[in-house]
């Protein structure tokens, strides 16, 4: 997949301040502030930056952590994973495969009856499309 590249100025014109801080500067939204938990039924979460499809609503679960959590991405080609050693810890960062937007992190403490993974994603990085 060809990467979508824009200048910081172009991203700033397109995104809100919070979307820019989280997706382009690797920030984190405050827990329990996303409206992603209210979405029910079929639907797909897309990258707020480039519109790429990332996660299915049916794979979302309540991890109690304050951020939308999924047990898997839409496809392994939808996201990329990178080692993140910021903030004095080692984690696995999740980014959009198309535009490199920071989405969140993946942890090995998800539902054991599915994948065992918890994709802990910033809701501000997502755009929900119902009935997709």
From TrEMBL:
> Which Gene3D superfamilies does the entry mention?
Peptide methionine sulfoxide reductase
What InterPro entries does UniProt report for this protein, alphabetically? Met_Sox_Rdtase_MsrB, Met_Sox_Rdtase_MsrB_dom, Mss4-like_sf
Name one molecular function that GO assigns to this entry. peptide-methionine (R)-S-oxide reductase activity
Q: Does the keyword DNA-binding apply?
A: no
Q: What are the UniProt keywords, alphabetically? A: Metal-binding, Oxidoreductase, Zinc
Q: Which reaction does it catalyse?
A: L-methionyl-[protein] + [thioredoxin]-disulfide + H2O = L-methionyl-(R)-S-oxide-[protein] + [thioredoxin]-dithiol
MsrB domain sequence ranges: 8-131
The cofactor(s) it depends on are: Zn(2+)
Family, as annotated: Belongs to the MsrB Met sulfoxide reductase family.
Q: Which NCBIfam families match?
A: peptide-methionine (R)-S-oxide reductase MsrB
Which named protein is this? Answer: Peptide methionine sulfoxide reductase MsrB
User: What species is given as this protein's source?
Assistant: Halomonas piscis
Q: What is the lineage of its organism?
A: Bacteria, Pseudomonadati, Pseudomonadota, Gammaproteobacteria, Oceanospirillales
């Amino acid at each position: 997949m060809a990467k979508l590249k824009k200048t910081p100025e172009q991203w700033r014109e397109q995104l809100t301040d919070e979307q820019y801080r989280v997706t382009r500067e690797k920030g984190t939204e405050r827990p329990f502030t996303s409206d992603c938990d209210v979405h029910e039924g079929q639907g797909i979460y897309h990258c707020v930056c480039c519109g790429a499809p990332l996660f299915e609503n049916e794979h979302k679960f309540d991890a109690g952590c304050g951020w939308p959590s999924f047990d898997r991405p839409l496809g392994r080609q939808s996201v990329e994973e990178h080692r993140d050693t910021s903030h004095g810890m080692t984690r696995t960062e999740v980014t959009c495969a198309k535009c490199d937007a920071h989405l969140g992190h993946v942890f090995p403490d998800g539902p054991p009856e599915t994948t065992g993974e918890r994709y802990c994603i910033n809701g501000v990085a997502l755009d929900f499309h119902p009935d997709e």
